[in-house]
Write a structure and sequence with these properties.
The complex is a heterodimer of chains A (140) and B (433). By secondary structure, chain A is an all-alpha fold. Chain A is built from five helices and no strands. In chain A, helix 2 runs parallel beside helix 5 and helix 3 packs parallel to helix 5. Chain B has 433 residues and is an alpha+beta fold. Chain B is 39% helix and 16% strand. Chain B is built from 16 helices and twelve strands. In chain B, strands 6, 7, 8, 9, 10, 11 and 12 form a seven-stranded antiparallel beta sheet that branches. In chain B, a hairpin with a 4-residue loop joins strand 2 and strand 3. In chain B, helix 5 crosses helix 7. Chain B is globular, with a radius of gyration of 26 Å. The chains are: A mainly alpha (140), B alpha+beta (433).
């Protein structure tokens, strides 16, 4: 697998996963799902910017850098790529789980976001680390 | 400084002056006057002037009370005076006085930051003293007890007592209580005295108070509260009077409900029978102006027909979700919270021409309406059951329709989506002999 294909695959995974998630959150906000007493729907977008945007901006940043000759070469360390893919997929599934369970749990939605931050922060750190490693190594 | 112990207001002024500026003065008392002398070193006298009134209470109850709180302290700001009067009305429950006073003082000083604290405290005391002394059904000992408690709270708040002062004050109060044993019926704290006086509600961010409605002379003033261990303020919050504007209402002659109803107890029994026939699960009693109210447990109804939902869903406080949430996708594609339609009936037996009050906060009203039945008294107290009904009494049925989004907004339908008859019929309520 060449570097460019690997980068595209990883970016597509994030794009395909994040876009519907944001769409769901937008629809929920429009339909009043987050319109509950003593809450502020800004917390929804604060959660998104905290746990979705860092990964997306990392990849967007990597793409804005001009393509290097290395893009056409083979991936030097495929295991890093596959770990990045696996961890990204796992992380994105957890994001979906948080959003899906909000509809059925008795816990107020701001609390579900707050609680999720406890473990998402750790997972996200690891995911961004691996994805970052892959993109940086690929650019060499 | 010499004040007449019979002039309670003067005593209070002395206390406030002492505590504000001369809090280590000692106090000597004789039978004709309270003499405040120069500072002395005796610890028992360092309790401060707050003890003066308690001592005076023990020594000269009849004398001091004869003056009915003395002259009204001068407060030139009529708005401030009116606000204090309104605040004091909420102390009628005689419970949590310190807490209520603290809140009332904070409110007052927040609203009137330039108000003179001594003047405000004096007026608080005067207003409370006047309120208590005006209650006919309290014995003089009880009045003194309430006033002493209030006075102690006031002194504590205006200048917090030291531990030693508090110990001495407690000892003095125990002595006071031991000297004046309360009658047995006073120990019964199941029911407290009913709120009476202005009913307040918010209109456009401003609190408006209305004095009690017409009375036949006994109901509002002498009746005990129907809500155990509730203060008048809490009752006002729980079941305000005048009641919040209902979705629909209807007035019925009591004779149309049942023949030969002669007491409150008979009317209550008849209404309970009607509720039982309608399979209404539970209800709660409240005292209202010149009568009582029975509130049915809030029920969930069909949003299209107004008929109660089947089985236990009728009494569920959560709406049925439109999609199955058990699955991951079901939860993910839930964009709205489930909305339920709810209804509660309030049966009011009263002589008061019921005028409803605007609903300032629909969510709050829904939340309160959910507690009407469980927090109301389960039955009419024995002493109220014997009270006679006259021709002036009528039955007013108030119906409240709500839409409530689970964990979200609430909305009361005024006017309601269904007519009074539809509501009554769909609930299975049969009003008639």
């Amino acid at each position: 697998m060449i570097v460019r294909t690997a980068k595209t695959s990883l970016s597509l995974l994030w794009l395909v996963a994040v876009a519907p998630l944001i769409l769901i959150l937008i629809l929920r906000q429009m339909e009043g799902f987050y319109d509950t007493p003593n809450t502020d729907s800004k917390e929804v977008w604060s959660w998104v910017s905290q746990f979705v945007l860092p990964g997306v901006t990392l990849m967007a940043g990597a793409w804005t850098v001009s393509t290097s000759p290395a893009d056409k070469g083979p991936v030097e360390n495929p295991s890093v790529f596959w770990i990045a893919m696996g961890m990204s997929a796992f992380y994105l599934v957890v994001l979906y789980l948080v959003v899906a369970l909000q509809a059925s749990t008795a816990v107020p939605w701001p609390e579900t976001f707050k609680q999720s931050a406890l473990y998402l922060g750790i997972i996200q750190g690891a995911v961004i680390g691996v994805v970052g490693k892959f993109f940086i190594e690929s650019a060499r | 400084l010499i004040v007449d112990p019979a002039d309670y207001s003067a005593v209070q002024r002395a206390i406030v002056i002492l505590r504000s500026g001369f809090d280590s003065e000692s106090v000597l008392i004789n039978q004709l006057s309270i003499r405040v002398s120069a500072r002395e070193s005796k610890e028992s006298e360092s309790v401060g002037a707050i003890l003066v009134a308690l001592v005076a209470t023990v020594a000269f109850p009849a004398l001091a009370f004869a003056q009915q709180c003395g002259d009204q302290p001068p407060i030139y700001d009529q708005a401030l005076k009116g606000d204090i009067d309104s605040e004091v009305e909420f102390f009628r429950g005689f419970t949590d006085i310190r807490k209520k006073l603290e809140a009332a003082r904070n409110d007052t000083f927040n609203k009137y930051p330039r108000a003179d604290k001594t003047e405000v405290d004096l007026y608080f005391f005067y207003a409370y003293c006047a309120l208590v002394s005006d209650i006919d059904y309290l014995k003089s000992e009880q009045k003194w007890r309430h006033i002493s408690e209030f006075e102690r709270a006031l002194a504590d708040l205006s200048a917090p007592l030291s531990t030693r002062e508090r110990e001495l004050l407690n000892a003095r109060e125990r002595e006071f209580r031991s000297r004046i044993p309360l009658p047995n019926d006073e120990d019964d704290s199941d029911f407290i005295i009913a709120p009476r006086g202005p009913t307040c509600f918010e209109i456009g961010g401003r609190r408006v108070c209305r004095r009690g409605g017409p009375t036949d002379g006994h109901a509002g003033r002498d009746a005990p509260s129907l809500t155990p261990a509730q203060s008048s303020g809490d009752i006002q919050k729980l079941f305000p009077w005048p009641p919040p504007t209902p979705s629909t209402h209807h007035r019925i002659r009591l004779s149309q409900v049942a023949r030969n109803l002669t007491t409150w107890g008979q009317a209550a029994d008849q209404i309970e029978r009607i509720l039982q026939q309608a399979q209404i699960e539970s209800w709660g009693y409240y005292l209202v102006a010149d009568g009582f109210a029975i509130t049915s447990r809030i029920e969930q109804i069909d949003e299209t027909t107004g008929a109660p939902l089947a089985g236990m869903r009728r009494w569920s406080s959560e709406a049925e979700p439109r999609v199955a949430l058990a699955t991951f996708l079901g939860g993910l594609f839930t964009f709205r919270r489930p909305v339920g339609t709810y209804r509660t009936f309030v049966f009011v037996v009263t002589t008061d021409p019921v005028v409803s009050a605007p609903v300032p906060d629909e969510a709050e009203l829904f939340r309160i309406a959910q507690t009407w039945a469980p927090r109301g008294a389960p039955s009419l107290p024995e002493k109220l059951q014997q009270w006679p009904l006259n021709d002036g009494y009528q039955l007013i049925v108030l119906i409240y329709e709500f839409d409530h989004v689970d964990s979200g907004r609430s909305h009361i339908h005024t006017p309601g989506r269904w007519s009074y008859d539809t509501h009554i019929r769909s609930a299975g309520i049969v009003l008639g002999p």
